[in-house]
Each structure stands twice: as C-alpha cells, then as structure tokens.
Amino acid sequence: MAGDGIGTGKARSRVNGAPAGGLKLERVWTTDGVHPYDEVTWERRDVVMTNWRDGSINFEQRGVEYPDFWSVNAANIVTTKYFRGAVGTDQREWSLKQLIDRVAKTYRAAGEQYGYFAAPADADIFEQELTWMLLHQVFSFNSPVWFNVGTSSPQQVSACFILSVDDSMDSILDWYKEEGLIFKGGSGSGVNLSRIRSSKELLSSGGTASGPVSFMRGADASAGTIKSGGATRRAAKMVILDVDHPDIEEFVTTKAREENKIRALRDAGFDMDLGGDDIVSVQYQNANNSVRVSDEFMRAYEEGRPFELRGRLHGEVIETIDARDLFRKIAQAAWECADPGIQYDDTINDWHTNPETGRITASNPCSEYMSLDDSSCNLASLNLMKFLKADGGFEVEKFVRSVEFVITAMDISICFADFPTEKIGITTRAYRQLGIGYANLGALLMASGLAYDSDAGRSVAGAITSLMTGTAYRRSAELAGVVGPYEGYARNADAHKRVMRKHAAANDGIRPSGVVATEIVREATKQWQAGNKLGDRNGWRNAQASVLAPTGTIGLMMDCDTTGIEPDLALVKFKKLVGGGSMQIVNQTVPRALRSLGYPEEQVEAIVEHIADHGHVVDAPGLKPEHYSVFDCAMGERSIAPMGHVRMMAAAQPFLSGAISKTVNMPETATVEEIEDIHYQGWKLGLKALAIYRDNCKVGQPLSAAKPNKAAETPAAEVEKVVEKVVEYRPVRKRLPKKRPSETVSFSVGGAEGYLTASSYPDDGLGEVFLKMSKQGSTLAGVMDAFSVAISIGLQYGVPLETYVSKFTNMRFEPAGMTDDPDIRMAASVMDYIFRRLALDFLPYDTRAELGIFTAKERAAQIQAEAAAEAAGVDLAGMAASAPVSAPVGASTSPAATPPLEAEKQAPAAGSSTELLELVSGKGADAPLCFTCGTKMRPAGSCYVCEGCGSTSGCS
C-alpha cells in the first residue's frame, strides 16, 4: 500500500467532494498466484467437548478440518463457537476454510459495493490478505462477526453497546427493553443513570421519586431472567452514576450491602455460590457498577473540601458532603465486593472527538469502549507475537500494513451491519466508531526479555499502542478521501483535530528505552504526522479507532498466551492434546525469553525444568536474580504489584480512542487506604477508567487458603537430618506377609466400572494394589495388571503413597466425569479417582490437606468452621499460623492439622491453567466456574474466559 508520499498507504482523493477511485493495495503476507490455503498443511480432527462437572458430552463434531499448526484448544473453541449450521446436517460448517471464506468474502463484496477498491485486483489482494492473516492467527475480529457475518442472521458485527435513559418512565422502560434485546443476542451494554432524578427530589404529582438505584432492581432482574432463559454466560452490563448525583452514596454501597446479605444467607445454610440455587434472591449481581468522578470532585478530595450534590431536575444543591469521606466510601465498597469501579469523566471527555454532538457519559460493560449514547463499536485485535522477530526485533512495516488492512475491513463492516435498535444504528453509521486493539502484550514483553513492570516494558507497550492508533487514524483519513468522512465530522472537525494533536503530542513524549522501542516510536511519529496532515485535508472516516479489549475467546482462537494488555497469568499452563487429555507445560515464551537474555541451551533446559516442578523461577539453577522480574506474572510466587498494572495502563492510555479493559488485582491483605490510593493514582496518571479486585472479597467465589509451607515450619536441624537420611538411604523391599488385611472398593467413573483392591501391612500402611476394569485377557486388563504390579513394588520399596497421589491425581483422560463415590463426586480420569480414593483411605488428614483431598464430611465441616469463625470475628488465617486447630469430624488423623478452606463445589482436579496454578501455588484464584463446562475461568481484562470452551463472562 505505497504511494502518495504519506506513510506506507495510498488513497485517491475526492474530486469536488465526490468519491473518486479507491484504494490501491499491495501484498504484505501473501504471494501473487498462490492462495493462502495452498501454503499450509491441513488435517482432519474430531472435536468432542465434555462437561467437566458430570462428564457428559455436550458437543461432538468429527472430521473437522484445520491447519496442522492450530492448537487443539483453538480448533475446539472455533468449532463449537463459530461454525454455523445444525450439527449433523449438510448445512453445518466443517472446515476453517468455510468459516474464513464466509467472513472474508462478505467483507470483500461489501468493499466493492461501497467503492473502497480502485480495481478488482485490489479487491483480490484485500480478500487474500485478510484470509492469510485470519488463517495464520495474525488478528481476529470480535465474536459477533464470526457468529453473524455471511449467514442468514442479522449481520450484527458489534460486541459493545452504550444505551441512554432519561428521566421519564417511557425512557426507563425502553432501557429495559433495549438492554434485554442486546443480552438476548449475547452482547453487553452500559448506561449512565444520572439523568434520572434522585430519591430526594419530588415528582410533578408531589410524591417522592424512586431514584435510579430503585430502577436498577428491575433491570437487574431482567438481566438475570434472560441469563437463566438459556444463555451460557451471565448478562454483561455496566451501570454508571455521576459523583454529584444526590443518590451517589446509596449507589456506592448497594452491592456491598448485598454482599453482606449473601454472607448471612450462606451462614444460614443457603447455596450462595456463583450459580447456586439461592444466589438469584440477591439483587444487583448482574452488573458492574462505576462512579463517574469529575476533576472538580478529585480536587475537592485532594484539598479536603466539601462537595455539592445537585438535583437532576433543576440543578439545585440538594446536599453538601465531604469529598474525602465519599472517596473513602467508594474505596471501602470496592474493598468489600470489588464494586464500584471508577471512571474519570473529565479525562474521558478531554479526549472526546465529538463534543459538539454530546458528552461521553457511559461505557460498555468492560469499560474499554467509551463514546456517544446509543452507539456501538465493533472490535478486532492483533496478535503481537506474530510481529516478534527471531532476533528480538519488531516487524514494524508488517505491523503498519496489517493495521491498514484490519482497520479498512472494520470500516467496511459498518456499511452492511445490522444493529439491535434503530437509535444505535443511526449513531453508529453517523460516527463509525472502531476498536482495533491487540493481544499477547505480556507474552511479547517476556519473550523479548523485558519485565512487564519496568520502564523498558512500558516504553515498548506505549510505542506499539501509539503506532497502532496512529496508523489506524492515518488509514481513516485516507478512507475519508475515498468514501468520505463520517457524517458527524463537519460539526466536530475542530475538536477531532485537537484530539489528534493531543495523541501526536503524547507520542512525542515517549522516552523509548532500547533499540526496538526507538524504532517503533520513530515510525509512530511518522504515522501521526502524515495522518494529521491528511486529516486536515480529508477529515477522518471514523470518530474512534482503537481500544484495548479483553480478547477472551478470540485470544484463545489466536493461540495467545496472554489476553489484551495483561501479563502472563502464570509460567505453567494446561495444554490440550489431540485425542483428548491434557498436560502441564511451561509457557513457550519462557525459553524464548531465556535465550533473549543470553542463557545457553543447557541452562535454559534446567531453568524450564525448575519452573515445571515449582511453578516459579525463584532459585532456578543459573538464573540471575536481576532477571526474576522478567518472569513476574499476574498470579503466583512473584506476582506483579498493583501499581505495576496501573502504570502499564497509563503507558498505553494516551494512544487509545477509548480505554482499557483491565482489572487491577490486589492481594487479600490490601487495605482500604491502598485501594483509595490506587483510585487516586489512576486519576493522576491520566487513566479513563479503573477497577480493582481484592482476592477473596466475594462470597460467590470458591473459598481458598494457602497450603502450609512445611519448609518454613521445619527447624534447620531437622532439615539437615532429612538430607542426611536421603544421602545414606538404600531401598530395601519389604514384602507383605502371606496373610494381609485388604479391602475392595467398586467404583464407576464416567460410566466405566471397576474394582480396586488395596492390601496393607499388619502394622498399617498400604503395600499392594490391584485394579480390574475389563475382561481377563483383554488389553486393558493386561495394562491395569502391569500398572498394579509396578505401583505395588514401588510401595514395597518405600515410595511414599503421597508421592503417587501427587503425581496421578489431576491426570485427565477419558473416561472422566461423575463417580458413584460420595467423597469424590468428580474425577478427571480413572487414575485420578483411584489415587484420591487411596489417599482418603490410607493418608493422614494433614498430608491430605496439603494435597487438597478431603471427604465430603470434612468439606462440610470446613465450611461450617469458616462461617462460625467469621461470625465470631476470628481471623482463621492468623489462627492457623499461631495455634493448632482440630481436624474436622471424620478426618483420618492429625488433631493438630489446620483445615484449609475449600469450596464445597470446587472441582477436584485441574481442568484449566487457573486450576493448575492453584495446585502449583497452593493459593486459590477468585475466578468463576464456567457455566458451560465447569472449569475455572481465566482473567481476560475485566472479564473472564474459559480455556475449555471459550465462553466469556463479558461482552467480547
């Protein structure tokens, strides 16, 4: 796309205001005369998805076609989520080629229809480049594009919506209806309720108004009803109230009060877990809440001044409050239940390109899309790892030209898109808001040998974001020369130009650290200069161009290690295998990072092995302590400090049209004062929105506690004795006597039946195991016999049973699912069940507690003990550290063991990277369980995504 002497793109100008010609395109990834599909090797796969909770098959399609380099997980998610047509019929899509063609050809046809291309050859290049990038996971459109484009369904392409509501009953009821329609389609919306008069104001009839918090109840019930009507994820919605609204204090404490209600009901025996039968009786659980704070309020907070709350009807002062007291209440509520978040109103509107049309009052549920009321945004995200060179450099030119293709396609989509309401359609077509973004930033930084929480890491992130948005707006100005600027541009031209100059000035303020960042900033500067010059002449095609979205499902589709702007979740993760099953692997970015840092291959292998065993890099052989920070993650032994996340957001924010979907995770020990300071720093650093989450602050999450650190509790002298024994020990086989006590247990795992016979020594201790699961003489029977002999000999040579338990539990393969054992309701495999059963029968309580294996009675006792302790104001964590606590009734032994707090419904085995991290670190993760497949979800921006099936808790 070269020409016109501007950047690397060319767009023909208009003649007398009328479109003339179209885009002349050049190839970037493709080869002339070779179709992208002919460059890769294709293979057939079977996609069978099972429910983690009961082992039932909830999806099956065999013989689907994918490139050989697509992971099993990516293929599974795309097959189940995006293939259209009824399963088992000829209309069902069965190949990735069909899916990509359905989308790419639709975009190409629309581009030709609406005059985007200079000639058919340019349309050919556009389609093939789009196809190549989608095939090779260079970028992805947001989910609605894959759901709807090229089908008989309405061509909805947007995932993010903003609604409006005025101070009238008709408007409020319209809000309920519009929100319901959006939820029905699987998307989410946000709305600001500040126009609704407060409960402290009068109605025209003389009565007192209900206030916005009251009307939130109806909307919340509607969202919950639509969710329970068949959706596989919670309704995603955002509710916002301005800080000067008279009902602001009630709004701030609303969800915190409900959280107290949840605790009381849980203690009374009701099922208040996320998705529990009784959680639906609690209000306000279907929305994220945010307070819109103004600069005036923040300055009043800084100076300790009073702040005025004003009526909605006439603007009169209803009440005067202490700004610091309200800001503390916001932090207190966030400490208690993670809500409300903060949105910085004046900062948002200072970067607004369309102020003459109206202020930005709201956002989508994940807070990355911020624009006019009754509008929408379609998203697409680039996979940054696809632009990382082998030598650690960045493919600047390919990145620029890829952004050009993607932003062009996104704008074309608005030409043919359908929208859930007429008002949203009118606004979106008039302002054409786009949301290009990226994923895999955390992986890119780690692979480059840069710490996420470092000046060097932030400079690269800021530079890439600036280059992306600068290129997108430059292409938007070129498109304006071809097909005209957006309809609302003329009345907002001065404001739009002012914001473009602000972006360019922010780019000039980047202080690049290192050669790579310097090269990226240099190109970004060219893009902003060229784009602003062209925009002064043509205007711009799009009122907005970029956001940083969660990239949940599409991140998995692109095989990204990290989502959006997030760092790595952990250094170890789950990988699904062909034919079923999974394995634990060290993130592939780790060895690449070690090589970038100059470590020889032998040390790389040793460090990777250490990470596989321990889940972290601390004390890894040969790893320099100054390099530890490169491998810091969102969770685990070395987790990134909260301000590290905030500073990364601040590095990217000046180069985004919208905002950033991200939650700043804080440890359970974080104080209200620390949260208050994070909120304040977010304003000072120029963020548009900020949300925090303090670990274990919500009741509707699995309870958790860290494993006891046995090493820390063992005196040094005892450690020396243990080492000495290990050095001198020589194994001697201790055979069982001819007559030995034994017991046989029949079992069923996922419908497969078997028998387990365990024999022990007369002085106690397991010494022999026999397993029967098939007819004598069959292959399975022979394998199980051989396995039994191997385990039995190992036990007789002194291999501790807990070693076998730690190795074989959580091993996942078919058959798996529900069992007939009341103590082990779910098993990831037959091996997982067998060794959990052996642990319950032969290991003492404190040993099992470390392994997270409990009887049903013990789990119930733990929950009761936790509830009783909380009611009495006892700190169980502190008590566990200072005083012995008796084991729950039914525990095998160890009266001095401390019962860990474990959710009654927590999955008994790891089925995702989050669950694997919990097992490795011994610390619980406050992530919800997937409603579709039952595994624990992974954070993705301010939402969650399921690695197993791709379901999300948000709107992306």
From TrEMBL:
GO terms for molecular function: cobalamin binding; cobalt ion binding; nucleotide binding; ribonucleoside-diphosphate reductase activity, thioredoxin disulfide as acceptor. The keyword Membrane does not apply. Residues 47-137 form the Ribonucleotide reductase class II vitamin B12-dependent N-terminal domain. It holds the Pfam family TSCPD. Keywords: Cobalamin, Cobalt, Disulfide bond, DNA synthesis, Nucleotide-binding, Oxidoreductase. It comes from the Bacteria. Residues 889-912 are annotated as: Disordered. Its cofactor is adenosylcob(III)alamin. Its EC number is 1.17.4.1. InterPro entries: RdRp_reductase_class-2, RNR_2_N, RNR_lg_C, RNR_NrdJ/NrdZ, TSCPD_dom. Residues 737-840 form the TSCPD domain. Residues 889-901 have a biased composition (Low complexity). Residues 158-693 form the Ribonucleotide reductase large subunit C-terminal domain. GO terms for biological process: DNA biosynthetic process. It catalyses: a 2'-deoxyribonucleoside 5'-diphosphate + [thioredoxin]-disulfide + H2O = a ribonucleoside 5'-diphosphate + [thioredoxin]-dithiol. Catalyzes the reduction of ribonucleotides to deoxyribonucleotides. May function to provide a pool of deoxyribonucleotide precursors for DNA repair during oxygen limitation and/or for immediate growth after restoration of oxygen. NCBIfam families: NrdJ_Z, PRK06556.1. Belongs to the ribonucleoside diphosphate reductase class-2 family. This is Vitamin B12-dependent ribonucleotide reductase. It comes from Spirilliplanes yamanashiensis.
